[in-house]
Amino acid sequence: MTKKVMIIDDNQTNLKIMDLVLTKAGYKTDTVINPKFAFDVIKEAKPDVLLLDINMPEVNGFQICKALKKDPELQYIPIIFVSALDQTEYISMGLSLGAVDYITKPIKAEELVARVDVQYRLAYVHKKLRRTNDSLSNQVFENSDMQEDLLYSLVKLKQGEKGNPKHYERIKDFCEYAIKKTAQDSMYENEIDDELITNSLYETFKK
Prior knowledge:
Layout: E1 4-8, H1 12-24, E2 28-32, H2 38-45, E3 49-52, H3 61-70, E4 79-83, H4 88-96, E5 101-104, H5 109-142, H6 144-158, H7 165-183, H8 194-206
Parallel strand pairs: 1-2, 1-3, 3-4, 4-5
């Protein structure tokens, strides 16, 4: 699997150093020296992690970060600010805008790789969770019959038909279906079996 990192810095030396360090660590890197075109390049490449300088001409790192966080397609890209500005006010500002980390220059190779690794792994997990949630929404709620059965039974229970076992059976069926769809392609897929689901639902309804 290709691990993509984009580095945006108006200093050629900084770009080369970070590019070399991360390439050796197994990342595919894209470098951008002109921040004026940063947004369009990010939108096209969609990197897994973005390293972003702050103090740049025409468009600074804070402005780029704000723009990314407003874009539904790009807002989930983890941003790590890499800057010589080491004052608390700049670090606080960067994190408050939505950055996940802040590295101060001069760059330490081991620290850079370690921090990028952490954010890459977190981003990978979050991406899988979003895909699972999207898949669940599409698959569960496309099953209109099951959805209607669920709502029908809930309404009937509210109206006093608590003695009808069919209503609880419909709710259980829906819950089992939803759990199985959620588990698909997740890190817990092999741990979720019919026995676990049945026992969990039994304990839940028993209460």
